[in-house]
Amino acid sequence: MKVRLLKQFFVTFLLTFGMLSLMILIDLKMGTPPHGIIWKTINPFRVMEPVEYIIVILYILIFLFHSLLSYLKKKRQNNPPSNE
């Protein structure tokens, strides 16, 4: 159990570090001034347009809807209706 938790933590940390590094390197390559790159990387919602907010909200709603459907499907399979 502890090994699995440690693996999940390590993979999450590795992916987060890799993606943040990629974002910083892309900003440097595009010529963005270095003093604002870290803040922009840590807080991406500060530089988002209103359309991007809508897209993020839609992704969250789709995820929640899919999770709810999966939960209801599992609940129905575990509790078959009785014919009494």
Label this structure with key terms:
84 residues, mainly alpha, 2 domains, 3 helices, 80% helix
Description:
This protein has helices at 2-30, 34-42, 50-78. It is mostly helical. The protein is elongated. It has three helices and no strands. Helix 1 packs antiparallel against helix 2. The protein has two domains: 1-44; 48-84. The mean pLDDT is 85. The termini are far apart.
Strand fraction equals: under 5%
Characterize the biggest β-sheet. Answer: none
Report the span from N to C terminus. 42 Å
Q: Secondary-structure element order, as H and E?
A: HHH
List the uncertain runs.
none
| Helix/strand structural class | mainly alpha
Quantity of strands, as a count: 0
Average of per-residue pLDDT values: 85
Percent of residues in helices = over 70%
Outline, from the CA principal axes?
A: elongated
Number of domains: 2
User: How many individual helices?
Assistant: 3
Quickly describe the structure.
The chain folds into 2 domains: 1-44; 48-84. 80% of the residues lie in helices and 0% in strands. It has helices spanning 2-30, 34-42, 50-78.
Secondary structure: elements and pairs:
Elements: H1 2-30, H2 34-42, H3 50-78
Helix pairs in contact: 1-2
